[in-house]
Every structure is written in C-alpha cells, then in structure tokens.
Amino acid sequence: MVLQQRIFITQGNYDCKLFNKSEQIIIDIIAENFKDTSTWDLVDLSHKEKGWIELHNEKKIINYQTYAFDLLAI
Q: Do 51 and 66 form a contact (C-beta atoms < 8 A)?
C-alpha cells in the first residue's frame, strides 16, 4: 500500500478579524487539542464521527448544525 502525502501551504495570513470572540475561542481550543495530531489520525477520527458515517456513501456534505452535538473527537 502506497500512501500519498499532500502538503497544503496557505496563500495568505490568518485574519482573526473574520471571527467573533466566541468563534476565535473555539478555534484556539481545537488548534490546541489537535496540534500534535497527524493528518492521517485526523482522517481516522473524522471517519468515526456520526456525520461522516451516515453521509459518506452518498458523498453528502456534513451539516455541522445537525451533527455538532454528536462530535466525539472534540
């Protein structure tokens, strides 16, 4: 099995003004929680989430207003 890696480079600087205070707090908490998590570990975690399990076969977009309270990894 050959795994391909992709490197994503941002095209601009992070603009914290795009988020209100409560959104920024959530972003900071999530960044802290997952700062040492590899890409593949994040993929594995996301594939255990109810939204992904229920929607991946049909390739539907996950509505986080529907599934936010079911998140396991956060």
A: yes
CA 30-34-37 angle, 5° bins = 165
Tell me the average pLDDT across 7-17.
Answer: 82
List the structure tokens of 53.
């399990």
Residue ranges making up the domain that contains 46: 39-74
Long-range contacts of 45-51 (CB under 8 A, 24+ apart): 45/72, 45/73, 46/73, 48/72, 48/73, 49/73
Q: Report yes or no: 71 and 52 within 8 Å, Cβ to Cβ.
A: no
**Number of separate domains in the chain:** 1
Which pTM value belongs to this model? 0.65
